[in-house]
């Protein structure tokens, strides 16, 4: 079963779990796996935040384009 076939509340719950679990547990995981120092853990968390923001932005743009293919909103979304 893919995550796209799950209901909206289940997807929301999974995304909230990931949102709070990654910044809390990632430093401990990196320390155990590769003996990462705190600054490296901070950079990893920052990159997770950055890439999730990029993914969110691209998802919003594709939704706007799908809903309003011939609208001026297309240019606003870019």
Structure description:
With 78 residues, the protein is mainly alpha-helical. It has one domain. It is built from 3 helices and no strands. It has helices at 8-34, 38-67, 73-77. It is elongated.
* Largest sheet, strands/sense/barrel: none
Rg from alpha-carbon coordinates = 17 Å
Mean pLDDT across residues: 77
Helix content: over 70%
Number of helices: 3
What oligomeric state do the depicted chains represent?
Answer: single chain
List segments where confidence is low: pLDDT < 50 over at least 5 consecutive residues.
Answer: none
Q: Strand portion, in percent?
A: under 5%
How many β-strand runs?
A: 0
End-to-end distance: 32 Å
Judging from the principal axes of the Cα atoms, what is the shape? Answer: elongated
Domain count: 1
Backbone structural class: mainly alpha
Secondary-structure element order, N to C: HHH
